From TrEMBL:
Residues 25-218 form the FIST domain. InterPro entries: FIST_C, FIST_domain_N. Residues 219-357 form the FIST C-domain domain. This is Histidine kinase. Pfam families: FIST (PF08495), FIST_C (PF10442). Signal peptide: none annotated.
Length: 377
């Protein structure tokens, strides 16, 4: 595996973290600020610097490169696989009447299955139901092919997100990257670092990822009581106080953050499903708690590997970034302390993370976690 990596801010020159060399048919991952991805001049600069065919774009709530967390930048990581290969498929949620499950099924059906080792998702993040997307992708999977990835971000604006493959970034795109080859070793882990507080309540009315009632009371009204003065900062304020959701037939809880609110219906739209009869509880954290969570995620991802990772794809939540603020790079440093300085690190801050629980093969949508995908040939 050969990797070239660089980052750039507007009106500044490229800065390389990995030496600039010519690669053969690389997978090029471009994670960047949404406003820059909408700038055609800037995209032309990216294409000129990395004149390759297989370019994948995704907007972010912060860009990760090496041990740095950047804002208002573009991070490009070009990966040449020497013993293995990749395929990229894409579809737009707007062509599926915003039905993420149908889109997921369609995307997976177009992906070649022979030798498929892993699937990595870079998805639109403002109106795709991440839980439904995973259900659709997994519907056709009969082996233990793992899925990881994330929902694109837009800082803390929640206005729109962008993604694409080959084309210029646009709204509604979901990109699925398949990795192939016996020589590949890919491990995944996800961990949060949040703790629950307050009473445990019951979801009494919901529809997929829209939450209407908790304990028979309007969900938004109840949530605002907990937020107090911060209620007028919704949905951004919800990133500091996510919900811990335990479905009645599941062993593990998932964390859910709020993507939008509907004042008329007194409802909240979350990044993933919140089924009726699920138990729900508020959560909170600290900078040290999140740093420890990142450390735990790295330990889990690195634990049973045969080879040392060469590439680390990190997807962390925008809520973590807001809590950690100026100390946000501490969670990247914790990851680096575990996986080593020689590993190329890239990734982004997201509106949702995709990964299975430790020891499981089925994928889940997570919020407020650090998720790692470690790759070597």
């Amino acid at each position: 595996m050969r990797i070239v990596q660089a980052f750039k801010k507007e009106n500044q020159s490229w800065k390389y973290t990995k030496s600039k060399v010519q690669l053969v048919n690389p997978l090029v991952l471009v994670f960047g600020n949404r406003m820059l991805l909408e700038n055609e001049k800037f995209i032309k600069e990216v294409r000129a610097e990395f004149p390759y065919e297989h370019i994948v774009f995704g907007s972010t709530s912060g860009e990760i490169v090496d041990s740095m967390v950047l804002d208002e930048s573009i991070v490009v990581t070009a990966i040449e696989f020497e013993k293995s290969s990749f395929k990229v498929k894409t579809a737009n949620i707007l062509d599926f009447n915003k039905n993420a499950q149908l889109l997921g099924e369609s995307l997976y059906n177009t992906m070649a299955k022979d030798g498929l080792k892993h699937l990595f998702v870079i998805s639109e993040g403002t109106f795709v139901n991440g839980s439904s997307l995973i259900k659709g992708i997994e519907r056709g999977i009969h082996d233990k092919t793992l899925i990881s990835g994330g929902l694109c971000g837009d800082d803390a604006k929640f206005e729109k997100t962008l993604a694409s493959y080959k084309e210029n970034p646009k709204q509604g795109e979901v990109v699925l990257i398949g990795f192939y080859g016996e020589s590949l070793e890919i491990s995944v882990a996800s961990f949060g670092g949040w703790i629950t507080f307050g009473p445990e309540r019951l979801i009494t009315k919901s529809n997929a990822n829209v939450l209407y009632e908790i304990d028979g009371l309007p969900a938004l009204e109840l949530y605002k009581k907990y937020l107090g003065e911060k209620a007028n900062q919704l949905p951004q304020a919800s990133l500091l106080y996510p919900l811990n959701v335990t479905e009645h037939d599941k062993e593990h809880a998932v964390v859910r953050t709020i993507l939008g609110i509907n004042e008329e219906e007194n409802s909240m739209t979350l990044a993933g499903d919140v089924p009726v009869n699920s138990k729900v509880q508020l959560m909170m954290t600290s900078v040290d708690g999140l740093s420890q969570g990142a450390f735990n995620a790295a330990k889990l991802a690195n634990a049973n590997r045969i080879k040392k990772p060469e590439l680390a794809l990190l997807v962390s939540c925008v809520g973590r970034k807001l809590v950690m603020n100026q100390r946000v790079e501490e969670e990247i440093e914790e990851v680096k302390n575990v996986i080593g300085n020689e590993v190329t690190i890239t990734g982004f801050y997201s509106y949702g993370e995709l990964a299975p629980y430790s020891g499981k093969s089925s994928c889940e949508l997570h919020n407020q976690t650090m998720t790692l995908t470690l790759i070597s040939e």
